[in-house]
Amino acid sequence: MEQHLRADHPVVAAAEGRTRLGRRLAPYGLIGPGGLWLFVFFVVPMFAMLMLSLETPIPTKGFVQGGYRFTFHFAEYAQAFTQYHVQFARSLLYAAVVTAVCLLVGYPAAYWIAFHAGERKTTYLFLLLLPFFVSFVIRSLAWQFLLADQGIVLHTLERLHVLPFGFHIMGTPWAVMAGIAYNSLAFMVLPLYVSIEKIDRQVVEAARDLYATGWQVFTRVIFPLSIPGIFAGFLLTFVPAVGDYVNAAILGGPSTTMIGNVIQFQFLQGQDYPMASALSFILMGILLIGILAYARVLGTRQIEEYV
Amino acid sequence: MSTEQVATTPEAARHPERLLTAERPPIRRPKIRWFVGSLNVYVKLLIVYLLVPVAIMIVYSFNKNPAAATATAPKVSFQWQGATLDWWRQWNAVPDLTTALWNSLIVAAISSVIATIFGTLIALALVRYRFRGSGALEMVMFLNIAAPEIVLGASLLSFLVVLNVARGLLTILVAHVMFNIAFVAVTVRARLAGFTRELEEAAQDLYADPWETFRRVTLPLIWPGILAGFLLAFALSIDDFVTTNFVAGQTITFPLWVYGAVKVGIPPQVFVMGTSIFTVGVIVAIANIVSARRRSPRHKRPSGTLARA
Questions:
Q1: A263/B235 CB distance under 8 A
Q2: Chains A & B: contacts with CB separation below 8 Å
Q3: Which of A2, B120, B254, B279 is the most buried (most CB within 10 A)?
Q4: How far, in Å, CA of A274 to CA of A70, rounded?
Q5: Residues B42 and B99 in one domain
Q6: Do B155 and A38 touch (CB under 8 A)?
Q7: pTM
Q8: Maximum average pLDDT range among A7-16, A157-166, B15-24
Q9: Closest partner residue to A31 among B16, B122, B190, by Cβ?
Q10: Looking at the domain assignment, is residue B219 inside a domain?
Q11: Residues B48 and B149 in one domain
């Protein structure tokens, strides 16, 4: 009522007119700096990479900076795929194993913290996140310490004759996957925790009142309701794992080279930019299909809620 | 589930209508309690496992090393050789490493401040206004968060190569702001979405101009969110390896230095610095949680159906 009276007043009406224009422009002023930054340094570089991947080196200049010509040359993609499909497959396999392990290991923990940790929820979540206060490279390094042939674990187990002498983990796929899984676990547990925590206890109680067994409560109530968290956890674990190369570099050997190692090498040492860009684009393409399918199903907000 | 357990399940479960007349058999609680108890142990073991590398870092920062006196950059050995505070006293004895640490701190400080300002503005725009292009912006932010870091780094490097820009501290700074904006925006938006416009409208009814409304009403309300976004950005920046590695050129940050030293040998100073960063981070995080708890009784939102509606 009052608003009607006020809006009739000429002064108020004039001011409203001004604010209406202001309101139209204000959001653009607010997103301006950040949006521009993201556009120039994230969106445009993607196109720059696409352009690079379609270039061919000028033979006389070789693989040095500037020695490229834009030729709209798709051959690099075909070559990238034939030459490095093993590394692509390996990266996807490692990431799949890591994601599955993280889900199996993380789910019970997320469930317990969400439903049974009571007032100490924050404390447990904090403890789960504690490793993130240690530099990522140092964490992988610590695993190198632990898993090395003369390291604490293997050396002790060999002395106790639990393991045969000469047994080693370093350089094997297991070491690489263990390293990635260690770094990814919290990214799986957190979204799972958020989704399980949201479940209405009354629904669980209702299932129990209807004599559902513990297993039935889980498979028919809790698990279906936590599926958004599983999706989010999958995305937060799988995508970084596919692109990971630090663990493979520190904990792996020549037989565990992942696609990230190839991209990094081609960009920084090999300086074969067209090949490296093509590889990055294939990687991005593979993951983008999954990411966009996910965004389609659950919306982009959902994942951001869990980040 | 064994068949025996299924057999003990009350008949009534399959015939709910009998519940109305028959006495309800007790629901089996003790089993659940046993299960929950073992899960509790499991979670604790998991936390121990997660903290093993942390413990290693802290312990090895105190490990005595006989080669220390002679070598310029003593390497950490796997064997425990007694405790010493030498490495803490000589924390800056490896000049390159010290420079790398300073680079990391400078980049983290500047980039997280810029990203916090830009990200907060984006969050304000997304929550407070409906405007054309917001969908595109959200998609770009989503992709920015979801894309693997190696692609972020590789594409930015491609861009720098195409433009023939020299790589260094400045390009690292640009990259860190780039990958932090979306994280800050999402964090602040989560906080902002919890508040209604009522307080801001009240301020405007009391003739506060938009700037005054923002400074004296909106900003204090979302301050915890901004702080959380800033801390997240700082943490992501100081620890970033993958993107930085692509755009650093000859400049070295702390994670880059450590990575480079892996093959050669790690001086204990790395663990001293790592432990220091860890300690500061933990203290700040705890302070943040405690202050949030202290604030919460006043800002407590109504619980139950009202909050959900």
A1: no
A2: 277
A3: B254
A4: 10
A5: no
A6: no
A7: 0.78
A8: A157-166
A9: B122
A10: yes
A11: no
Among residues B14, B43, B60, the one where a domain terminates is: B60
Mutation target vs A (from B150, B236, B244, B286; most A CBs, 10 A cutoff): B150
Q: Give domain status of residue B307, yes or no.
A: no
Using an 8 Å Cβ cutoff, are A117 and B221 in contact?
no
Cα B220 to the center of its chain, rounded Å: 23
Residue among A35, A127, A268 whose CB faces B137 most closely = A35
- Render pLDDT for B82-100 as a digit per residue (tens, 0 to 9): 777 777 777 777 778 888 8
3-state SS class at B238: helix
Asked whether the beta carbons of residue B150 and residue A138 sit closer than 8 angstroms, the reply is no
Residue B88 lies in a domain: no
Residues B32, B104 within the same domain: no
> B120: closest CA among B42, B58, B180?
B180
User: What CATH number does the domain containing B152 carry?
Assistant: 1.10.3720.10
CATH number of A74-306: 1.10.3720.10
Q: How far apart, in whole angstroms, are the C-alpha atoms of residue B201 and residue B7? A: 63
Token pair 């951001």 in the structure block, residue: A304
Least confident of A163-167, B1-5, B292-296: B1-5
Closest Cβ opposite residue A215 in set B1, B125, B182: B1
Nearest to A280 by CA among B241, B157, B155: B155
For B174-214, write each residue's pLDDT tens digit: 999 999 998 888 888 887 776 767 777 788 788 777 788 88
Alpha-carbon span B240 to B235, nearest angstrom: 8
**Residue B111 sits in the same domain as residue B255:** yes
Model-level ipTM above the cut of 0.85:
no
pLDDT at A67: 56
CA separation for the pair B288, B306 (Å, rounded): 28
Query: B73 in a domain, yes or no?
Result: no
Claim to verify: residue B195 and residue B260 sit in the same structural domain: yes
For chain A, residues classed under CATH 1.10.3720.10 are 74-306
B142 and A304 within 8 Å at the Cβ level: the answer is yes
Residue labelled with tokens 């129990």 = A208
Model confidence at B23, pLDDT cuts 50, 70, 90, reads low
B100 & B155 share domain:
yes
Q: Spell out a b/e string for A70-102, using b for 16 or more CB atoms within 10 Å of the CB, else e.
A: eeeeeebbeebeeebeebbebbbebbebbbebb
Which has more confidence, B214 or B298?
Answer: B214
Q: What type of residue sits at position B269?
A: Q
Confidence of residue A302 (pLDDT cuts 50, 70, 90): low
Residue A99 scores a pLDDT above 80: yes
Angstrom distances, CA of residue B39 to CA of B141, B155, B273: 37, 44, 35
Q: Where are the alpha helices (DSSP H) in chain B?
A: 3-8, 29-60, 86-89, 95-128, 134-146, 149-163, 169-192, 198-205, 210-213, 219-238, 242-247, 254-261, 268-299, 305-308
Judgement on whether residues B37 and B109 belong to the same structural domain of the protein = no
Domain that holds residue B221: 95-266
Count the alpha carbons within 13 Å of B86 in the hemisphere toward its beta carbon.
18
Indicate if B53 and B198 belong to the same structural domain. no
If one counts the domains in chain B, the total is: 2
